[in-house]
Amino acid sequence: MARPGTSGEGGIDYTMAMLRLRYKGVFDWEGLYKTMKGWFKEREYDFLEKRYKHKMRAGGYAEIEVNWDCWREETEYVKNWVTVYFHLWDVKEVEVIKNGKKMTLTKGRMKIEIEPWVEVDYEGRWADSLFKRKLRDFYNRFLYRIEIESLWQDKLWYNANKLHQLTKRYLEMEAESEAFDDYW
Amino acid sequence: MGEKQKLISKGFTYEGIFVFKHLFYEMDSWLREHWYDKMEKWNEEQVKPDGTKQASFEFVPWKKFTDYFKGVLKIEMMGTNLRDVEVEQDGRKIKAQQGKVEVKITGYLLVDYLWFYGSRWDKSPLFYFMRDIWDKFVNLRYTRKYRRMTVDNTNELASAMMSYLNMERYQQLHHAARPHPGYKK
């Protein structure tokens, strides 16, 4: 079954869990946006910003929603996806003095959801007929299962975790560590 | 999905001066050393107008013992009224936090979990019954072995975190819940 936003050719996706982050306080929204986007660029991910919604609310506060779809074709059969969703509430620009310098930062509440998943047969070469689909399912379940699980999913999972840690480090959150940063 | 058996729950509370990042690193590095896969379910932090912080997170790391048994540790931590302070340690000034932290670690054993296409023995009530008989009577030795491993891992992680917080001076406020009746050492 094709997920919305995939090639639509009949690929199968293997979704892993979602990484969630919530922060309330003062932060550099512009810097965070650029840092996270730069992370995908460094790793040669294709990047699509599906939605950037900025809504002004009463009292001068804004609400922002951003959806990112990023993908990278690992092989002719396997494609890695990372979707990122930002939702910010009560957003207001404030002037603060940080490290002796006056800066304009953002005050508000933020939720970030990072969802990595692996798509196989993204070109739909094995989706033409029922026989080919059954053959593909057999291959994925019994022959190629270990590679999908321990190679592609594991690698993508820990890379998504690195993005998660980078985000926490940028926001100067207390609950972050580099214990798993050297995986993959 | 398979059957999730709750085996043990351990909790403790600490109030005083500590380095939250180091406590988090202690937990993270323990999980890595014991070959647990990382799974951070959610992480939340609030900076209040008075400068104090509230940080909480939930980790659900797992370890696949076999393709049938999987150990899961649910770690919930909440730090409240965390205020940045400077303390001196070994002649150096370091940044620490003063506040209260509550930790709860729960150990689960997942049986017949197989990731991709769900449980193999949950298809019908008959299969479910056969799996239960197999786990409790035929395969009992292995079921007990992995239950013991999960309980031991929960205790070890809790001890590692408590010893980091130097719990000698503070009493454990929450006591461990009664272990699962199927667990025998």
Question: What can you tell me about this protein's structure?
Answer:
The complex is a heterodimer of chains A (184) and B (185). By secondary structure, chain A is α+β, with helices and mostly antiparallel strands. In chain A, strand 5 and strand 6 form a beta hairpin. Chain A has three helices and six strands. In chain A, strands 1, 2, 3, 4, 5 and 6 form a six-stranded antiparallel beta sheet that branches. About 3% of the residues of chain A have low confidence. In chain A, helix 1 packs antiparallel against helix 3. Chain A has one domain: 3-Layer(aba) Sandwich (Delta-endotoxin CytB). Chain B is of the alpha+beta class. Chain B has one domain. In chain B, strands 1, 2, 3, 4, 5 and 6 form a six-stranded antiparallel beta sheet that branches. In chain B, helix 1 runs antiparallel to helix 3 and helix 2 crosses helix 3. Chain B is elongated, with a radius of gyration of 19 Å. The C terminus of chain B is likely disordered. Classes of the chains: A alpha+beta (184), B alpha+beta (185). At the A-B interface, strand 2 and helix 3 of A face helix 1, strand 2, strand 3 and strand 5 of B.
